[in-house]
């Protein structure tokens, strides 16, 4: 799990033996801190990244290596303005089958989770993550 979901990740680490947080042991020495360096390493190891950073899909310096190295990524959309960690755990659990299916796919792959649904999207280097409101 990405650092932006470390609180959720710590809890999940107690429930599953296949969840790690990049900045914590036992993988802290294996995972670079910068996204541009971390993405190839995570993809090379066959891991699925779980993050709240929706811009990885569109930022050129992150989306390009994600495509090149076949990164599989789960991105959660915030469940609400006053969301707490439990809201994120509930969202991941309610879409657990979709996350498990992503783990069996060949990357690159992007799975976006919201409270009510999942959505597969393509990486789009250099594209805005959302159209501006006019």
Automatic annotation (TrEMBL):
Residues 33-76 form the VapC45 PIN like domain. InterPro entries: VapC45_PIN-like. This is VapC45 PIN like domain-containing protein. It comes from Amycolatopsis pigmentata.
């Amino acid at each position: 799990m990405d650092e932006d979901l470390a609180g959720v990740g710590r809890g999940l680490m107690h429930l599953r033996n296949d969840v790690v947080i990049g900045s914590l042991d036992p993988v802290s020495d294996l995972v670079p801190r910068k996204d541009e360096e971390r993405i190839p390493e995570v993809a090379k190891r066959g891991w699925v990244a779980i993050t709240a950073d929706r811009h990885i899909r569109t930022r050129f310096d992150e989306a390009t290596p994600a495509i090149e190295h076949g990164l599989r990524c789960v991105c959660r959309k915030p469940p609400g303005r006053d969301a707490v960690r439990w809201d994120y755990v509930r969202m991941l659990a309610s879409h657990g089958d979709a996350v498990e299916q992503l783990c069996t796919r060949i990357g690159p792959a992007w799975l976006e989770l919201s409270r009510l649904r999942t959505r597969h999207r393509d990486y789009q280097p250099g594209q805005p993550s959302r159209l501006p409101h006019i």
